[in-house]
Amino acid sequence: MIGKLKAVKEGDGNLLDNALMFWSNELGVGGTHEYSNVPYGLAGKMFTPGRYTDFLGNKTPALGTSAGVVGSGPPHNQLFVSFLQKFGVNETTFGDKHFSGPLPGL
Hints:
Blueprint: H1 2-7, E1 9-10, E2 13-14, E3 21-24, E4 40-43, H2 76-86
Antiparallel strand pairs: 1-2, 3-4
């Protein structure tokens, strides 16, 4: 899909330059249905490319013990607020109102 978006010329660049692709898996570990360490992937030039962010931080739980684990990294809610704001939606929260604002540095 990324290749196809890059192949479509748009303005001075291509369609991927002006798009946001978001990919996520439903689970972090499918065999045990873990909901921690769920991977996200972004493509496009709406945000700074070549960046890696660990939303869970350094408190990764042992396999099978994800319930109630809170990491030290930023909440993923801020990533979704960043999406909204990039598309012109004036919101400061997504989901839990305690996790407000966009993800810093995007």
